[in-house]
Specification:
This protein has 244 residues and is α/β, with parallel strands linked by helices. The chain has 11 helices and 9 strands. The radius of gyration is 16 Å and the shape is globular.
């Protein structure tokens, strides 16, 4: 079984080309059993309408997809909570991309979403990067402030190869997790069990096209493993955290 916690839909002229059909067909082609999807269009315009579009997709494929509300500074927190309460069976978590939003993870403008996550036990997936907005140290700060919320380090800092800071944060904080989107197996294979119990398979699919899952440099290595960590990363950790 394979669960991908980090996928997208969304078509942005001059930017991203991830139509709904591409994600679904890619999952079928590479035998991905279940994915958590957010609509990246919400980061650029009309977050309410874009999140509704994501929910409509998930409702069409409930056995394949779970939803991640894409939350931005422009997204009204009351609208986000209403969407969740009206679609609880379809929404599994929250996605925040601080770099696209131009707003730091520890900025108070996001706190209403963290409070919502605590209220409904919704994990939050961050894009993390060594930038003024997405640094891992900002995640540890909010993890201390909101101990009831589980925060996921998307990419485990996309700018680093060794992932040492991310691994240290995952090991130290009970409510910080990681995903493998553009993370090489060699970067985490020597992490301790405490960390490997909290890392989940994520890919950013289909950001690199329908064959994102076939990337030999990154994702193919995870399928080849013959060890207990493989099963944990590919599905067991995600199934536990997201209650799938």
């Amino acid at each position: 079984m394979i669960i991908d916690i980090h996928t997208h839909i969304g078509v942005i002229k001059g930017g991203f080309n991830m139509p709904e059909s591409m994600l679904v067909e890619s999952m079928r082609k590479y035998e991905i059993d279940y994915s958590l999807v957010s609509n990246i269009e919400a980061a650029y315009f009309k977050p309410l309408e874009s999140n509704i579009k994501m929910i409509e997709l998930v409702k069409r494929y409930p056995k394949m997809l779970g939803g991640m509300l894409f939350c931005t500074p422009e997204f009204n927190a009351a609208d986000a909570e209403r969407l969740y309460t009206e679609n609880k069976e379809h929404i599994k978590g929250i996605k925040i991309h601080p770099d696209i939003s131009g707003t730091a993870i520890n900025d108070e403008i996001f706190f209403s979403f963290y409070e919502m996550a605590a209220k409904y036990d919704l994990p939050i997936l961050f894009h993390t990067k060594a930038s003024p907005f997405s640094r891992i140290e900002f995640v540890t700060e909010v993890a201390e402030r909101f101990p009831a919320v589980n925060f996921i380090l998307g990419h485990m800092d996309i700018d680093t190869e060794d992932k040492k800071e991310a691994v240290a944060a995952i090991e130290e904080y009970g409510n910080i997790f990681g995903d493998t989107a553009w993370v090489k197996w060699d970067s985490i294979k020597n992490a301790g069990d405490k960390c490997l119990d909290k890392i989940m398979f994520g890919t950013d699919a289909p950001i690199a096209g329908e064959d994102t899952y076939a990337d030999e440099k990154f994702y193919s290595e995870y399928y080849k493993r013959d060890c207990e960590a493989k099963e944990k990363i590919l599905y067991k950790n995600a199934a536990k955290l997201f209650k799938i």
